[in-house]
Description:
One of its GO terms (biological process) is lipopolysaccharide core region biosynthetic process. Keywords: Cell membrane, Lipopolysaccharide biosynthesis, Membrane, Signal-anchor, Transferase, Transmembrane. Involved in lipopolysaccharide (LPS) biosynthesis. Catalyzes the transfer of 3-deoxy-D-manno-octulosonate (Kdo) residue(s) from CMP-Kdo to lipid IV(A), the tetraacyldisaccharide-1,4'-bisphosphate precursor of lipid A. The protein folds into two domains: 3-223 and 427-448, 3-Deoxy-D-manno-octulosonic-acid transferase, N-terminal domain (Rossmann fold), CATH 3.40.50; 235-424, Rossmann fold, CATH 3.40.50.2000. The protein is 45% helix and 13% strand. The chain contains 19 helices and 14 strands. Helix 15 links the parallel strand 13 and strand 14 (388-390). The protein is globular, with a radius of gyration of 23 Å.
Amino acid sequence: MPRWLYSLLLYVAMPLIFLRLHVRGREAPAYRLRWRERLGYAPHQRAARDGPAPTAANAPALTRPLWLHAVSLGETLAARPLVEAIREHYPNLPLLITTMTPTGSAQVRAIWGDDSADFAHVYAPYDFPQAVRRFLAHWQPRALVIMETELWPNTLVQARARGIPVMLANARLSARSARGYERAGRLGAELMRQLSVVAAQDEATAERFCVLGVPSSQVVCTGSVKFDLEVPSSLADDAARWRVAWSLHQRPVWVAASTHAGEDEIVLAAHRQVLQAHPEALLMLVPRHPERFDGVAKLISSQGFSAVRRSSHEPVTADTQVLLADSMGELLLWLAMSRVALIGGSLLAPGGGHNTLEPLAVGVPTLTGPHFTNFQSINESLLAAGALSVVSDAESLTRAVLARFTDADLVATERAAGAAVMHANQGAVARQLQLLAPWLGASTLAAESANSHSI
């Protein structure tokens, strides 16, 4: 398919695209806001119905920022170690972070706060040629970093036409996705020509990009930045305070994180069986998408569990059986308070899974469902090391949770295995930052080195 035909089809589909946003807004009202950003307009150009425009004091006025694109929640979390490294080594570098979903947008705000003189966040434009031109003309980024795999033809072509280098960071590409790019023919080949460098998570991904036409000199296997997750130094103290406040020291706690529709029923069925063996057990249930919070709350109530919603700020009591963690940015806290964690998005096909490294980073034994194609390489290495276990239904989930409540040797073995895998695979952030360096200017380290030599 030639790109002009792709663009024509995209314009024809425009009404359906925005109708879909409107429909999704029934459950998540944020989808009905900030539509003009999706057409490439800067925030101060937004329509009145999208909310008040920023004041002159806080309107973003970045000069040639580094543009980092993270599609949604998962990519935003994955980007965090890289962004923090960039901000540490290039403190004067303006940074523009874009997402495509309200969930990703909320996570950006939760981590990095509001817009400032050197930071801005907006939705990325849809891949309409005029929207992309408008966006690039306003922001004039010095380079584009795309997290994992989010390749849009018009965006990439117009970026390179303006001399903007493009790096695919923490890149992953399954065999199925690679076949899709091959079937795209000319359009797929054109996409690959726009990539300045691909920082692949694993050798299989690197090989697939080379087969698709990216020169091998531009493909580097750096490993995954997810292994470089830094646990806040205050996390242990914060978790201890909440354990005291909610009287959890004698209670077995487990977390079901990033669950998708259909998985909550499985988790609650397992928890009902867990309660038969440990009546004092507490489940912290963390749905992946905020638009599902109310529905999951109704499900928990309909099944007769005594529950508290985090958003209500009511305390967990001795009678509470389920905490519905309907908040953003607190997952590490819940994990640090637990004895075992299930990572959702993996129990039901087609699944794809989510990040199993977060609980391992805080020393929590970790479970996943059998469907984790999005984390195939990482999970296979964890399984081989004995740092991860697979469950498939409520019964196997129950057995796995109960085993980790009672078997101290198993817990110690899994913690040690997880720590070993994490340590062995760290360093991807430094390697990817090195690939970015030619486009970012002088770093703090370089400046300090130059100053020391001049003395």
